[in-house]
């Protein structure tokens, strides 16, 4: 979202901040990042299996073949959540574990894993929040063209129906897609994510078919889940700030806002693509793949919008017309931004995490205010927020991650301030429960509340886990 440059929105200096009793506290993971068991019980390769096994794609040649072995240690991980006292767990279903080729009947062993997981969560009083897609497209569907092809959206709707038929009596909250921007523009534009393609037109086609997949999946879910169940989508809305107040920098921010945000919020939440997106990309594509009736299919009623936020995006006009990709989405020399070669990305000021991302809670506050203004009828849930730091276990087996606690405190204070100012934010899911496979970074970046010793799989709750457990238990955010 576009705001004035360097907005200053520090939180009020309250001694403590209290959240309502019904505020939902949770934590989140994704299937490929934690499950492992890559070839067990009928699971076949996803695009991330293929990508990770391609030399040079992932740091240190790491793969998700074992990850944190959650497939075998799920009961232990649910016990960790119960100890945290969180009210909900956001996890993703692995499409190639449930429907290995992306076609045909479900594999019952795959569904049984999620049935057991959900039953255990419910027994512990933890709400299961299921995400249908967190980037692990069955490789067979990519071989047939992947997300740039309309058929993939149709296959996704059939997969959603299988999942709803199996779990709809247990799971009351569903998310269709996680961060479709990453799937489309990092996967097919920059090549920094699987499947590693570098075609700007394919990225735009993928964005449309992900939108269509979302709408078709919501329809499939609504046909099968109880009337009181909820449907949502999770978007990594970029909080875009212009470097200066100049017209050129403001237009650069507008252009990135269209490619990062309104390409999804327009059709999903308003039933139309923004005109400026079509104008900006006209030299690349005529958008002929947007067929009659697609926008009505995409624009399905939702119960809330999932918002992922880590850091703001700072841009300016690039006078040299070169390719500028210093935007926190590295791994390729190709830009993930079609038709935006004259936009430069800048490092926001201030402290950074181990990912090199700026620590800026004001961006979350400003983003929530903007979303509330643009979509006042739609409740918001923070579905991911967290930070990677260079955590280590000391000789006594303690992980004292004070920097993460400070990060979380600042961002939760921003959420509280937004609520105080009238924004309907109903929950917060911390990313992540466990240290895990961090995509192209492999196992080099640690986001977890729980430290994982990868050679042994041993779990060690960090200091931040104890801190977050207290916030979730009391609903009170106390100043240090």
UniProtKB/TrEMBL annotation:
<feature type="binding site">
    <location>
        <position position="33"/>
    </location>
    <ligand>
        <name>substrate</name>
    </ligand>
</feature>
<feature type="binding site">
    <location>
        <position position="178"/>
    </location>
    <ligand>
        <name>substrate</name>
    </ligand>
</feature>
<dbReference type="InterPro" id="IPR017853">
    <property type="entry name" value="GH"/>
</dbReference>
<dbReference type="InterPro" id="IPR017736">
    <property type="entry name" value="Glyco_hydro_1_beta-glucosidase"/>
</dbReference>
<dbReference type="GO" id="GO:0005829">
    <property type="term" value="C:cytosol"/>
</dbReference>
<feature type="binding site">
    <location>
        <begin position="438"/>
        <end position="439"/>
    </location>
    <ligand>
        <name>substrate</name>
    </ligand>
</feature>
<keyword id="KW-0136">Cellulose degradation</keyword>
<dbReference type="InterPro" id="IPR033132">
    <property type="entry name" value="GH_1_N_CS"/>
</dbReference>
<feature type="binding site">
    <location>
        <position position="134"/>
    </location>
    <ligand>
        <name>substrate</name>
    </ligand>
</feature>
<feature type="active site" description="Nucleophile">
    <location>
        <position position="384"/>
    </location>
</feature>
<protein>
    <recommendedName>
        <fullName>Beta-glucosidase</fullName>
        <ecNumber>3.2.1.21</ecNumber>
    </recommendedName>
</protein>
<feature type="binding site">
    <location>
        <position position="310"/>
    </location>
    <ligand>
        <name>substrate</name>
    </ligand>
</feature>
<keyword id="KW-0624">Polysaccharide degradation</keyword>
<keyword id="KW-0378">Hydrolase</keyword>
<dbReference type="InterPro" id="IPR018120">
    <property type="entry name" value="Glyco_hydro_1_AS"/>
</dbReference>
<keyword id="KW-0326">Glycosidase</keyword>
<dbReference type="GO" id="GO:0008422">
    <property type="term" value="F:beta-glucosidase activity"/>
</dbReference>
<dbReference type="InterPro" id="IPR001360">
    <property type="entry name" value="Glyco_hydro_1"/>
</dbReference>
<feature type="active site" description="Proton donor">
    <location>
        <position position="179"/>
    </location>
</feature>
<dbReference type="Pfam" id="PF00232">
    <property type="entry name" value="Glyco_hydro_1"/>
</dbReference>
<feature type="binding site">
    <location>
        <position position="431"/>
    </location>
    <ligand>
        <name>substrate</name>
    </ligand>
</feature>
<keyword id="KW-0119">Carbohydrate metabolism</keyword>
<dbReference type="GO" id="GO:0030245">
    <property type="term" value="P:cellulose catabolic process"/>
</dbReference>
<comment type="similarity">
    <text>Belongs to the glycosyl hydrolase 1 family.</text>
</comment>
